[in-house]
Amino acid sequence: MDLSDDIVIQPVIEVQFPPVVKIVGVGGCGGNVAQHVYDLGLKEVSFAVCNTDRKALRDSTVPVKVQLGDGLGAGGDPEIGLLVAERSAEDIRHLFDDDPQMAFITAGLGKGTGTGAGPYVAQVAKSCEILSVGFVCLPPDIEGERKMKLAMRGLEQMRKSADVVIVVDTQRIFDLYTELTIEEAFKKADDIMADAAKAMVDIVTKSGRMTIDMADVRTALRNGGDVVMAYGRASGENRVQEALSNALNSPLLLQPKLSGAKDMLLNVMTSAEGSLYAKELKSIENYLREKQGVDRSTNLILGYMLDETLGDDVSVTIVATGLRPVIRDRVTLDMETNSSPMDSSSVSSDPHPETFWNLGDMTDEEMRTPAYDRAGRKRI
Length: 380
Ligand SMILES: Nc1nc2c(ncn2[C@@H]2O[C@H](COP(=O)(O)OP(=O)(O)OP(=O)(O)O)[C@@H](O)[C@H]2O)c(=O)[nH]1
Ligand SMILES: [Mg+2]
Description:
Blueprint: E1 21-26, H1 27-39, E2 45-51, H2 54-59, E3 65-67, H3 78-87, H4 89-94, E4 102-108, H5 113-127, E5 131-138, H6 145-161, E6 164-169, H7 170-176, H8 182-205, H9 214-221, E7 225-234, H10 239-248, E8 263-270, H11 278-291, E9 299-306, E10 314-321, E11 326-328, E12 342-343, H12 364-368, H13 371-374
Parallel strand pairs: 1-2, 1-4, 2-3, 4-5, 5-6, 6-7, 8-9
Antiparallel strand pairs: 7-10, 8-10, 11-12
The structure holds guanosine-5'-triphosphate and magnesium ion.
Residues 27-29, 32, 52, 73-74, 76, 108, 110-114, 137, 139, 143, 147, 170, 186, 189 line the site of guanosine-5'-triphosphate.
């Protein structure tokens, strides 16, 4: 008998899995952050950039690009940023055709494109049933009060549009790292974004004894508001405490402590060789209770997974919701109340109720209708 009669050779089918995370950079800053993370070559992450600035799009090596408007910029006006994004609604929707589980929409707030179009893109991701994370950078003091005010309004808008928001305060980076060049300082913000994306990919792709899966992440983050995502790694006798403190004592975290967190995902990873000891688990609990003031009201989801690249190290990733960032303690932003120190929750009321600032309440149908039609006027 000819052996080949019985053997059915299956064709090799290449299965393309959707990426875990998509990073969409909106505007100049957003595009820079996305570019930096793209250059790191992370697995399971797809990338796109949207901008009103054709030059910036031309210079980007991120493979998917959406030009908003005529390509000549938004002139620092968030309403223009929003209008041109609405006109490109279909292109923006197609950005999510690769069906990621989570999308980070990254934008610098205070000018036109990121502030206006960033929340819109975040809302589109959310309307596609993708967990939508806004990752925003606030302007440094030197750019003045007007930019900061616009930024705070953009932040409120992002809070309405995305499931959760991570805030990076660029001025804080400049204050802390006075000896760094501007480029190096910006890279600090880029690194926070990269760590957050990597942490999410690890959570979803690694396996282990106690896994956290995407459903857990969704439960914790759906409409979770402001979120802390922190990552730390350490080795040695006190590796667990040190990894936790590397993650949580970062001066760039705008939430001073985790006490009061609503939901918390805590993912611990080691290699099989460097496995976690029971006493180390106890010291994690002690650290969170004693040093961070986390009590039993926080819904803690614990994961323990294996990553063979870690050797003797332990890594911890913490994602906590329900903690408002403390944004600045020296800039007075609310002219009416003159209140300082300022928490971002005290942003004053909305001067443009008909357009930009009401995006969060829009229906899907309204999202596809340009604002100039909704408001009965043409701006551009
Ligand atoms: N952290 C960080 N902030 C940046 C970067 N580039 C710009 N910014 C800040 O982000 C804010 C918004 O700036 P851009 O992103 O350039 O503005 P845009 O969204 O392109 O808006 P228009 O140019 O008006 O269309 C400003 O306050 C900048 O200081 C960057 O690479 N990293
Ligand atoms: Mg720009």
